[in-house]
């Protein structure tokens, strides 16, 4: 007779434990959707077969969601069976988090994956940092994961029969995955400025505190600590105060410096962070929670006493 554990793992409806890692039926939330890493994560979750992805970010600066129109067109070309919903969203507002969860449950009856990828870099020096800057970085980097930890798990516990939409699947057991996209500044100092280091440490703190909080819910929580990621901008177009960016431009490090300081001798790509998020969302990571997955090409291992970024 099969054990209870093997029955759970072998259930064709218990999607995180599918042998192929697919996310059929999954309803996902991704914040920071207009950032390069957020876009890559949306592409990856769709490639895994998610039924719906809420692409959440602040309204485009150019007005009335213009950035979302372009984002939706780009994503729709390659993800035909995944419904991607542009959702203007302020991660710092508790009431907006609650409103988003209500909208998700009213529309789909379930929530499976929540990715916090709305990080903020902040000013590079203490002199340039104001209390307002620090508050904004904490809101983006650690308060947003806190809201996810506090409010997403009850929604992830909702069970549903199979619905009539593409990539649909029933949900007959409680499960979910919360993924916090942070930085190697979560464990190191001196990576950029004090805002970045302090708020990234707090983000990892949310993940570690979440493990015991989530016992019995079937929900896992993990952190991705990214190193030098090439997000496609250079110093010429970069806001050096860091109040509009998630990561510093990779051009801050010369090719020679990258070859010397990074084990893989190059900066990473957003898609490489996205693939780790896809792994943490799927059943391939079914026994992983509270982890800090460092995605930095080996830089912090080779140079633990130097600035990783």
How much strand content do the residues show?
5-15%
SSE order, one letter for each helix or strand: HEHEHEHEHEHEHHEH
Strand arrangement, major sheet: 3-2-1-4-5-6-7
Number of strands: 7
- State the separation between the terminal residues, measured CA to CA: 54 Å
Mean pLDDT: 84
What share of residues is helical?
Answer: 25-40%
Shape: globular
Unreliable runs, pLDDT <50, ≥5 residues?
61-65
Q: Output the number of helix runs.
A: 9
Would you summarize the structure shown here?
The chain has 309 residues and is an alpha/beta fold. It has helices at 4-10, 36-47, 66-78, 94-108, 131-156, 194-213, 255-261, 270-281, 299-302; strands spanning 27-31, 52-57, 83-88, 113-116, 176-183, 219-226, 292-295.
